[in-house]
Amino acid sequence: VGPRAEKERVNCPPNNIILMLAGAGLLWMGWSGFNGGAPFAANTLSALAILNTHICTATSLLTWLLLDSFFFGKASILGAIQGMITGLVCITPGA
């Protein structure tokens, strides 16, 4: 335990952006089923949970992209996926 080595602090972009996007899409789709299936019935409550999941995730993704543009001068796929995951995590207790 201690400070990380200097070589471990370098920026490491992902190796395959297409697989990262596919995984993010599968995660979003699965998370919708997870939140929508929480009431154990196909009713209005589960439909609202799915709707809220999509709205929160899309809003978080767009907010993250705007902040990327503001702070770094350009939006990135990494930022979009980070915003998407943040939105999914934040809406789960509310859904």
From TrEMBL:
Keywords: Membrane, Transmembrane, Transmembrane helix
Annotated transmembrane regions: 17-34, 40-67
Keyword Cytoplasm part of the UniProt annotation: no
Subcellular compartments: Membrane
Organism: Corchorus olitorius
Similarity comment text for this entry: Belongs to the ammonia transporter channel (TC 1.A.11.2) family.
Name of a matching Pfam family: Ammonium_transp
UniProt keyword annotation of Ion transport present: no
InterPro entries membership: Ammonium/urea_transptr, Ammonium_transpt, NH4_transpt_AmtB-like_dom
Lineage: Eukaryota, Viridiplantae, Streptophyta, Embryophyta, Tracheophyta
MF-aspect GO terms: ammonium channel activity
The protein's name: Ammonium transporter
Topological relation to the membrane, as annotated: Multi-pass membrane protein
Gene Ontology CC: plasma membrane
Domain Ammonium transporter AmtB-like, first and last residues per copy: 2-95
